């Protein structure tokens, strides 16, 4: 039902809101060989995440619900595991990111399925686009890890 879809979209939004900070954490605290490459890539990811947060929140509003717009509530419902402050090496950052991206794909696909059940082609289309982008990101992370 529509409420289940909206609740799932808000959970997704909360996850991406926390990811926005987590991607900055890695961007700032990265150490080692490959720094320049992954530092720049993480900036691309958090910029992309900012666009996704805005698009999802506005879609939720267009569907007649309030988006999660405070971090306290986001932290209560997120499934994202944040990192402590401090140095993180490239291999560890890529390993953690890969797990996160696999989760974003899983999360997006669940919403596509729920949206399809509701006949909500717009939401299904938005999240199908995310799956496409994330699967490309996952391939690239796996390629980068094999150096
Ligand atoms: Fe920066």
Automatic annotation (TrEMBL):
The keyword Flavoprotein does not apply. One of its GO terms (molecular function) is oxidoreductase activity, acting on metal ions. SUPFAM superfamilies: Ferritin-like. Residues 7-146 form the Ferritin/DPS domain. Gene3D superfamilies: 1.20.1260.10. The keyword Cell membrane does not apply. It comes from the Bacteria. Keywords: Oxidoreductase. InterPro entries: DPS_DNA-bd, DPS_DNA-bd_CS, Ferritin-like, Ferritin-like_SF, Ferritin_DPS_dom. Its EC number is 1.16.-.-. Belongs to the Dps family. This is DNA protection during starvation protein 2. It comes from Lachnoanaerobaculum saburreum F0468.
């Amino acid at each position: 039902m529509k409420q289940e879809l909206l609740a799932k979209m808000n959970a997704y939004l909360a996850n991406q809101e926390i990811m926005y900070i987590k991607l900055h954490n890695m961007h700032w605290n990265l150490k080692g060989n490959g720094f320049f490459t992954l530092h720049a890539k993480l900036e691309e990811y958090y910029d992309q995440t900012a666009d996704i947060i805005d698009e999802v929140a506005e879609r939720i509003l267009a569907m007649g619900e309030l988006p999660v717009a405070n971090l306290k509530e986001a932290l209560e419902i997120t499934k994202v595991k944040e990192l402590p402050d401090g140095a993180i090496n490239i291999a560890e950052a890529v390993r953690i990111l890969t797990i996160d991206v696999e989760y974003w794909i899983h999360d997006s696909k669940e919403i596509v399925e729920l949206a399809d059940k509701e006949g909500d082609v717009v939401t299904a289309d938005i999240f199908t686009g995310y799956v496409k982008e994330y699967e490309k990101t996952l391939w690239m992370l796996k390629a980068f890890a094999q150096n």
